[in-house]
């Protein structure tokens, strides 16, 4: 007998999904996100002394020659501290979606009666993703969208 899953609360949905429909929970900068958590776990498993081992093993395993660069990237990924745009942490300067959603009293653009609007106030490369995500949010709802977002790559 399987235990039914508890649907995410509204606050959890708002924490993990930006008003524009980007899945914050999968972002490399998101505090508590999978990328940050896995990077921290790997960093901790390797420990601070692995750099010395990598240097000694590099002649036998050439891939380890790049360990210093890898370690710097791993440290960067482990620092994810963004709490999402609803908390003022949006990395996209000039994005007006959060303010627009608040003005229309909706959690997500796809819930807005004016969606899709003519001016989503997003950088051009994100407009098509915004439209697709908004359509899914509108048709299936935020909980189903979150389930879908968790099952696909964050960086297509």
TrEMBL record:
InterPro entries: DUF3795 (IPR024227). This is DUF3795 domain-containing protein. It comes from Humidesulfovibrio mexicanus.
């Amino acid at each position: 007998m399987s235990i039914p899953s508890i649907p995410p609360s509204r606050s959890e949905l708002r924490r993990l999904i930006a008003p524009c429909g980007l899945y914050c929970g999968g972002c490399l900068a998101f505090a508590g996100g999978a990328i940050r958590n896995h990077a921290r776990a790997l960093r901790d498993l390797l420990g601070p002394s692995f750099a010395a081992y990598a240097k000694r093993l590099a002649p036998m395993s050439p891939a380890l020659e790049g360990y210093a660069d890898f370690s710097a990237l791993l440290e960067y990924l482990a620092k994810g501290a963004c709490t999402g745009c609803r908390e003022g942490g949006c990395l996209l300067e000039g994005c007006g979606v959060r303010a627009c959603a608040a003005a229309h009293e909706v959690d997500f653009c796809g819930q807005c009666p004016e969606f899709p609007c003519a001016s989503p106030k997003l950088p051009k490369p994100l407009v098509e993703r915004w439209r697709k995500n908004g359509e899914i949010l509108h048709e299936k709802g935020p909980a189903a969208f979150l389930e879908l977002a968790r099952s696909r790559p964050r960086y297509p």
